[in-house]
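User: Reviewer 2 asked us to show a designed sequence for the structure in our supplementary figure. I'm pasting the structure tokens here. Could you produce the per-position amino acids so we can include them in the response letter?
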């Protein structure tokens, strides 16, 4: 069990540069008059190239994704391994470093990034998860031993408060991770992972979620469920469907299956009558959940359990699941296996397509999927590196 969590921690630090969540791509900017590029501020994308300490993050704006390939010719360089998400017309990028710094960017109509502010938290190395509530209210959990959630104004990037997490600390579990969060009905639901001294995995057979009241900025309670394992995914642990039900994905361990829990609309406890056993549905340990319309959802399954460290190449595959029926339709045919450290990265593109980020053994790319007919096609080859975030801007 310790070996498995060491892998999870390794994957987490490899991909956790923090900001929770992804969509868009365009051609090389060879000609400023090219109509494809004249409005390249509709989407943003981040690509990461290099390995270890010699990594660079490249961000740029795009007009769309109907292109064959994408490089970094029009991108802005950021030193280090960075993660990006978007909100209300801007991109927010955090690069793993000390102190934790989240930088806000807008883009001109050529796709060039323009710095619009930053949020710095001394004592932390990065932002584990970010949740935007409104143009003036957002929350960020931080990594580096700080037991707090930072409240900030995403418009001005000013720090406006903090939420003390000391009430959920445990002396016997000195290491904590706050991974994944979602705001709903005036509450902030946040995944909590406890770890004992010396990497003792004492609590990984239970899912813990902190329920925070946003009006008072206080932890209301800590809820737990023994039917599955830890909530340990910064980007895809939480999802809300059109009915307002909140789904929480947790990892599986030796004595617990990976699975999805539900917190019904208007409630703040796990629904004891509802559990989606992903091990039973897919036949594999799974991580994360992304929910779309009419029960359509996806998870990332470890299809090569014998190579969990992915020494021999990608070991995960996207699986289509039905969150309503709690069933699996199997592997998403037409997609290659992917490295699991980035989580299940996908977003809706236009009305008829979903886009999947594929970090493969020999190529990084974005694939399109049409739920109506099941068609899968490679959309873009990413020659500039692996994608660490993309989404619509406006």
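Assistant: Here is a per-position design you can include in the supplement:
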């Amino acid at each position: 069990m310790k070996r498995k969590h060491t892998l999870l921690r390794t994957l987490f630090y490899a991909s956790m540069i923090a900001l929770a969540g992804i969509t868009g791509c365009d051609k090389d900017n060879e000609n400023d008059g090219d109509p494809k590029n004249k409005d390249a501020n509709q989407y943003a994308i981040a690509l990461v190239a290099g390995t270890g300490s010699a990594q660079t993050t490249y961000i740029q704006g795009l007009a769309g994704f109907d292109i064959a390939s994408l490089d970094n010719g029009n991108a802005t360089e950021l030193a280090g391994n960075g993660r990006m998400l978007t909100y209300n017309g801007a991109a927010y990028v955090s690069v793993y470093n000390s102190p934790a710094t989240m930088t806000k960017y807008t883009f001109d109509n050529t796709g060039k990034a323009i710095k619009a502010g930053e949020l710095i938290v001394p004592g932390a190395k990065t932002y584990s998860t970010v949740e935007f509530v409104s143009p003036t209210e957002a929350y960020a959990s931080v990594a580096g031993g700080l037991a707090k959630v930072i409240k900030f104004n995403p418009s001005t990037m000013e720090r406006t408060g903090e939420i003390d997490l000391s009430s959920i600390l445990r002396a016997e579990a000195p290491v904590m991770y706050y991974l994944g969060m979602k705001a709903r009905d005036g509450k902030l639901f946040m995944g909590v992972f406890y770890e004992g001294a010396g990497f003792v995995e004492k609590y990984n057979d239970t899912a813990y979620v902190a329920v925070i009241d946003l009006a008072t900025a206080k932890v209301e309670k800590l809820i737990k469920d023994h039917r599955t394992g830890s909530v340990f995914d910064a980007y895809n642990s939480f999802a809300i469907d059109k009915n307002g039900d909140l789904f929480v994905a947790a990892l599986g361990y030796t004595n617990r299956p990976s699975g999805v829990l539900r917190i019904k609309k208007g409630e703040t406890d796990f629904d004891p009558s509802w559990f989606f056993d992903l091990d039973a549905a897919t036949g594999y340990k799974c991580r994360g959940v992304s929910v779309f319309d009419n029960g359509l959802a996806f998870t990332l399954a470890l299809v090569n359990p014998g190579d969990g460290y992915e020494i021999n190449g990608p070991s995960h595959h996207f699986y289509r699941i039905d969150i309503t029926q709690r069933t699996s339709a199997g592997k998403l045919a037409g997609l290659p296996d992917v490295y699991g450290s980035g989580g299940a990265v996908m977003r809706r593109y236009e009305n008829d397509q979903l886009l999947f980020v594929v970090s493969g053994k020999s190529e990084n790319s974005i694939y399109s999927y049409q739920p109506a007919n099941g068609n899968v096609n490679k959309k873009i080859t990413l020659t500039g590196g692996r994608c660490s975030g993309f989404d619509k801007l406006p």
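For the response letter, you might also mention the following. The mean pLDDT is 88. The helical segments are 2-15, 278-282.
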